[in-house]
Design brief:
By secondary structure, the protein is mainly α. Helices cover 74% and strands 0% of the residues. The protein contains ten helices and no strands. The longest helix has 35 residues.
Length: 316
């Protein structure tokens, strides 16, 4: 029975990858087809007199950018993302059922669950904010994560090592994965801010970028996501310390995993502090957000795979 669940999990993960691929293609089509190349006739109709230049050019650009005609494609892209999320969720659950435990016992399982959390954070934020433009980046990131997990990190389903057999595994790891998904979404928005800020510094936005939110909106959304999930990350670090005392007889030992989790906490705390007390906004805040996110990714990738210490449970 466990082997059947394991096979089912693999098929569900593969199927979710196919749907995320369709979502990526649909988002790419949405972006490409919405931008029309200006024709010679449309450019002749622009009056470049000083008093009317801005209004005329804006009207011409509007004629060459039509996202209404790709609305159906955009909805298909979102639908494929949702279906991919559902199948991936089922795949993660089947993986756990195959070993009668929570599916967070090795790097492969961390990765597929992390991809689930990242896409879930995007879909949840999409309900309240107009961030469908991020779908292209999210689908690429999820596909890269799942592809690496399947091709490089995969390990057969097996029971947990003794050190992980604890109720705290559910509490600590689940909150860490959810926090990571939201942190990475905030980082993607911060990266978009920096890219668009550089574009605007050199002139005006390119045609395809004019549909994206203003720099102020991106700055605020990135901050709100970090402020929302930072308490959960704090709880995850505290839960990890309590678990360490129960498993190893000490709350903190400066193990590489613990150290980098603390560095991530300090980095995001500094980001929030800089915004609230110092008043950092815009470019400085975005760079600090990316730095904090890089510490999380370093902990997730390098420390998990090549690090040493008591947290070496990657299975590699």
């Amino acid at each position: 029975m466990s082997r059947n669940w394991a096979y089912l999990s693999n098929y569900l993960v593969y199927s979710s990858m196919a749907l995320y691929t369709l979502s990526f293609i649909a988002h790419a089509v949405e972006t490409a087809w919405a931008v029309r190349v200006p024709t010679e006739d449309s450019m002749k109709n622009i009056d470049y007199e000083r008093t009317e230049k801005v209004a005329r050019v804006a009207t011409a650009i509007k004629k060459n950018i039509d996202y209404e005609r790709t609305e159906k494609v955009a909805r298909v892209a979102t639908a494929m993302m949702i279906l991919g999320f559902v199948l991936l969720f089922a795949g993660v659950m089947a993986r756990g059922l195959s070993a009668s435990r929570v599916p967070w016992g090795n790097m492969y399982e961390f990765s597929i669950t992390g991809a689930l959390a990242f896409s879930g954070a995007y879909l949840a934020a999409l309900r309240k904010h107009n961030i469908r433009w991020l779908g292209l980046l999210v689908s690429i990131a999820v596909l890269l994560t799942l592809g690496t997990a399947v091709a490089v990190l995969y390990r057969p389903s097996a029971p947990l090592v003794p050190a992980l057999k604890s109720t705290w595994l559910v509490v600590h790891v689940s909150t860490a994965i959810i926090s990571g998904g939201v942190f990475l979404l905030a980082n993607a928005i911060a990266a978009a801010y920096l890219y668009l800020d550089r574009m605007e510094t050199r002139g005006e936005r390119k045609a395809w970028a004019k549909r994206l939110p203003s720099l102020e909106d991106l700055d605020q959304l990135s901050y709100r996501l970090v402020a929302f999930v930072f308490p959960l990350w704090t709880f995850s670090v505290i839960a990890g310390a309590i678990w360490a005392e129960s498993a190893w007889g000490r709350y903190w030992g400066w193990d590489p995993k613990e150290t980098w989790a603390f560095i991530t906490w300090v980095a995001y705390a500094a980001y929030l502090h800089a915004r609230v007390t110092v008043g950092w906004r815009g470019r400085k805040a975005a760079w600090l957000c990316l730095f904090a996110g890089s510490t999380f990714l370093f902990n997730y990738v390098y420390v998990n795979i090549w690090g040493t210490g008591k947290h070496t449970y990657s299975g590699l």
